[in-house]
Amino acid sequence: MHEEITHPFVQHKLALIRNKETGHKKFRELATEITMFLCYEALKEIKVEKVTVQTPIAEAACHVIAEDLVVVPILRAGVGMLEGILDLAPTARVGFLGMYRDETTKQPVAYYQKLPEQTKDGLCIVIDPMLATGGSTAAAIDVLKAAGARKIVVVCIVTCPEGLQTVEAAHPDVTIYTASIDERLDDHKYIVPGLGDAGDRLFGTR
Ligand code: PRP
Ligand code: URA
Known about the structure:
The protein is an alpha/beta fold. The chain has a single domain (2-203), classed as Rossmann fold (3-Layer(aba) Sandwich). It has helices at 8-18, 24-42, 82-88, 135-146, 161-170, 198-203, and strands spanning 2-4, 48-54, 59-65, 69-75, 93-94, 96-101, 108-114, 123-127, 130-131, 151-159, 175-181, 184-185, 191-192.
């Protein structure tokens, strides 16, 4: 299952982040802002519990978050979304999965893994700006499931039909939230129109 967040503020910021003239400082700020909006939607069903709060006037019946959240950025571009989700959920734990796409085969290569113990019981939120072929995201979900994770959602900034199909076929129980389902992949497996190489644009490496 997937959901495209079409809110005008998200789409406005997406127009800015796609622009090839946007430099890495602004790109990082926009990635943070877009992530907050996407995660606001992605986390709308998390567990809450009732509490009573004393206002200056009277008692108020309130709700507070009662879900253990584990945010899992896929290194390296996923780190560009970390600040945005932690602004929203500051007590979340963070696990890291290192993966890069082999330049020739375009297959994901795993090189690092450090997950918190709570991965089994919490809601895992995989963050990566680009879900292209879907290989990296599907492999990340494989790792999380092998670690015992039962509840997983994916938040990405841009994806495409091929990538959604791959992840949904492998993991039909995982919902994907995105700001855009773009047209297609090009011959180099880059998303068209996409926003280019997210890692390079975030960290100024090109
Ligand atoms: C990018 C992106 C995803 C992956 C998407 O990472 O951040 O992790 O490619 O492609 P896929 O859906 O076809 O697997 P990249 O390999 O460029 O590494 P980086 O984050 O270190 O730049
Ligand atoms: N990785 C990126 O950074 N961009 C793409 O379009 C595809 C993979």
